[in-house]
Amino acid sequence: MKEIKHLINGQFVGSASGKMFDDINPATGQLIAKVHEGGKPEVDAAVAAARTALKGPWGTMPVDERMALLRQVAEGINTRAEEFAQAESADNGMPISLARAAAVPRGSANFIQFAEHFKYVATETWEMDGALNYSLRRPLGVIGIISPWNFPLLLSTWKIAPALASGNTVVMKPSEETPMTAMLTAEVINEILPPGVFNVVQGLGSDSAGAALSEHPDVDGITFTGETTTGKTIMRAAADGLKKLSFELGGKNPNIVFADADLEDALTMTLRSSFANQGEVCLCGSRIYVQRPIFDQFVTGLVAKVKANVKVGDPSDPASTMGSLVSKEHFQRVMSFVESAREDGATFECGGKIPDNLPDHLAEGVFLEPTVVTGLTPDCKAQRQEIFGPMVSIVPFDTEEEVLELANDTRYGLGATVWTTNLGTAHRMSAALEAGIIWVNTWFLRDLRTPFGGMKNSGIGREGGVHSLEFYSELKNVCIKL
Ligand code: NAD
What we know:
The protein has helices at residues 40-55, 57-60, 63-79, 81-92, 96-117, 152-165, 180-190, 209-214, 228-239, 263-275, 295-309, 328-343, 381-384, 400-408, 423-432, 465-472; strands at residues 3-4, 6-8, 11-13, 20-24, 31-36, 125-128, 131-139, 142-146, 169-173, 198-200, 221-225, 244-248, 254-257, 287-291, 347-350, 371-374, 391-397, 412-413, 415-419, 437-440, 455-456, 459-460, 473-481. The chain is of the alpha/beta class. The protein has a seven-stranded mixed β-sheet, with helices on both faces. The model has no long low-confidence stretch (mean pLDDT 98). The structure holds nicotinamide-adenine-dinucleotide. Nicotinamide-adenine-dinucleotide binds at residues 146-150, 155, 173, 175-176, 204-206, 210-211, 214, 225-227, 230, 233-234, 248-251, 282, 386, 388, 414, 454, 458-459.
């Protein structure tokens, strides 16, 4: 049986407690690895190693050299791309096609992006009468990364790469649901960077490794992606040390289709923004608002596309376009939203049940048909809370004012999508929607130089491009009397 260990100070080690937990393939229910369960002792050792490594060769390395090493990390991931893709798919339930096409390439692209971009960012200079001010950028220090299970490699490297490119050292706590690609990343990085620069402690969240990292007095910043409630707990734990925080949290994103939109484009992309990675994407547009003249046509069109294009099946089969949910617990949570929608009188246009044609080897898996409902009112549980599964609701609207009111009536503010061919509508909606990222006539089109993050309960701060540099470094001003 494969064993997944921690990487601490350049060594793969087990836990002092000897405790382990199971890593289960959610599509088959099979045990795929035993994972060493880290706790405070492992976090303490990893943070101490990271602190020491800041003072070692990494801390004084010329920028070009550091960036060259990060490009080698990208190459290291690319060289083992298929191994990464298989691991991600087995751990998470994501279709292997998605792991190959998006998760792994984006994992390595993150290293290239930040290795390149940060070399060309200037600092400011201000001339005064008789004095000169200039700014110096310095690494923040030891960065704690706490990452989720939904795109484990893509989302962790989105933080590892800029943290390292800025000259920091890192202690990462990956999700207990998906420890595999964190271990592979550790293997790749450990061959390239000095010991202690990048450390991974496997383990659980509350009262465990995650909590120990959040409250550790020698960690300078915490960057976290996950649920809003977890973010609040981490913020409280980090308050004592006044740590710098960056949070990418949950969403309940509106997808708004005006009657003048290109219907075919809107339908094709809505299929993706509803069911990509089984709807386990923070940016999925789970609240679909469609202007009344095209409402019926849109509902019929989306259901037709689901039936024609979505193949739920074994994630390891390249023909599957939807895999399994991440775990039994998460499946039960998603099903509770299906049930609540039923109780609230929703019409199930399609889905709402376990697929009945799954092969025997997937009998223990956690699969749900792509589910489209209509008839939910704004106060229904399934319309208000993040489902994080393959279930969307479609609601009609009449005017721009009305849909704005509906779209913004949420504690979340991560993403929003607008479909229209009217330039005025596009600009007015983009300005008024309360979300950190607005897509017009597209979805999930990402330029890694742009600010990424959420408003309201969807996050704190922005990462991406120079915004990542802002988080992962300290600026100091030097004032010289001439
Ligand atoms: P989660 O909050 O349950 O777990 C995320 C990480 O936090 C895991 O590593 C977990 O072990 C750790 N953790 C849990 N409790 C902790 C505690 N008390 N102290 C420290 N660490 C703790 O989230 P999840 O279920 O893994 O991921 C799904 C959530 O992530 C969804 O809400 C989704 O919207 C959000 N998400 C947001 C973005 C974004 O960019 N905004 C991207 C992906 C996912």
